[in-house]
Design goal:
With about 160 residues, the protein is mostly helical. It has one domain: Orthogonal Bundle (Arc Repressor Mutant, subunit A), CATH 1.10.10.10. It contains six helices and three strands. Helix 3 (about 65-70) crosses helix 4.
Length: about 160
């Protein structure tokens, strides 16, 4: 059995369309569209990093340590970003009922304008993707991605 090898300076055949790269590029496209639309609505103080952190917050709130793990950064760096978002009025801290030493980070529910804008922007981008993918394309993509993410843990 012969394996095709490539030199370290040459990308292997199929590199440009491998699934990991495509998923990463699609995420970057989504984030860039979100940032552009939020900035056009006046949320210019939000950086790409801020937007990524906001996307990691669960609807019921998320511990800082979990946010740091999701972002691949230290708890200290995440704490700094959370302080910035807190100062800007996008997130708030609340005590973690299961651990008095920890706090839960939540979106500020009273910031209804931002939340409405964010949800509307997500819907706009999904509509743009649906227009590109066709009538059944977006539901199929969502179903396929969900299947990948929900596969049995032993398949990982």
């Amino acid at each position: 059995m012969s394996e095709k090898t490539t030199s370290p300076s040459q990308a292997p055949e199929g590199y440009d369309d491998n699934i990991g790269r495509l998923l990463q590029l699609a995420l970057r496209d989504f984030q860039a569209r979100c940032a552009e639309k939020l900035h056009s609505r006046g949320y210019t103080q939000l950086s790409a990093t801020h937007l990524t952190i906001l996307s990691y917050i669960d609807p019921t709130g998320t511990r800082i340590v979990t946010l740091a793990e999701r972002a691949g950064m230290t708890k200290q760096s995440m704490g700094d970003l959370i302080r910035e978002l807190e100062t800007q009025g996008f997130v708030e801290r609340s005590p973690d009922p299961s651990d008095k030493r920890a706090v839960i980070i939540k979106m500020v529910q009273t910031n209804t304008t931002f939340l409405a804008d964010a949800y509307n922007i997500i819907a706009e981008i999904q509509s743009e993707y649906a227009a590109t993918l066709g009538k059944d394309g977006l539901p199929q993509l969502r179903a396929l991605l969900t299947a990948l993410l929900n596969r049995n843990v032993t398949d990982k």
